[in-house]
Design brief:
By secondary structure, the chain is of the alpha+beta class. About 45% of the residues lie in helices and about 20% in strands. It is built from five helices and three strands, in the order ααββαααβ. It has helices at about 1-10, 20-45, 105-115, 115-130, 140-155, and strands spanning about 70-85, 90-100, 160-175. Strands 1-2-3 form a three-stranded antiparallel sheet, with helices on one face. The longest helix has 29 residues, at about 20-45. It is elongated and about 95 Å long.
């Protein structure tokens, strides 16, 4: 009878779960994560190409004589005054644009600049009016120079005769318009 009482009391109570009962789900999740990590590692090793060595290219040495100026000539292209409203405020810009060209092309380009002065001013004004205000904060104005050079080379029939664009003067003033 005493054995029956113990059996009856044991059936009514839930089974005791110890520490191993709580750790079992954590161990299963940890094992699944480990299997997943190994699987991703294997797949990435199969997919990605093997690394290869990068070889540095040697730079050309520029001529050491800065006074050798016979190869290139600077020409003043135009002086423009235009506005920019991109930021919601009106800014007026006064700019003087010059270019660096090969000495052998100097006469042809000077004649071209004189003949197409208004077209050149129009293109330069379009570049300045459409420029992002952040472009004017760049110390070298590289984006604006690149765009002006592209427009001038397009006017020249797509020939890359202009080596470099220089902005000799760029004055910015806020307008009250």
């Amino acid at each position: 009878m005493a054995a029956e009482k113990v059996k009856e009391e044991g059936e009514g109570q839930p089974a005791k779960t110890g520490r191993s009962g709580k750790m079992k789900p954590l161990m299963i999740v940890g094992g699944l994560m480990l299997v997943e990590a190994v699987g991703i590692f294997v797949v990435m090793k199969l997919i990605s190409p093997a690394p290869h060595a990068a070889h540095a290219e040697e730079m050309e040495e520029h001529e050491s004589d800065p006074f050798k100026i016979k190869d290139d000539t600077e020409l003043v292209v135009c002086e423009v005054s235009t506005f920019n409203r991109k930021e919601g405020r009106v800014y007026v810009y006064n700019a003087e644009i010059s270019v660096l060209v090969a000495t052998e092309d100097q006469e042809r380009i000077a004649e071209f600049i004189k003949a197409r002065e208004l077209s050149i001013k129009d293109r330069v004004q379009v570049v300045i009016r459409s420029a992002d205000p952040a472009d004017f904060n760049d110390p070298g104005l590289e984006s604006i120079k690149r765009q002006i050079g592209h427009e001038l080379n397009n006017l020249l029939g797509g020939k890359e005769l202009i080596k470099e664009v220089m902005i000799a003067k760029l004055l910015q003033s806020r307008s009250s318009l």
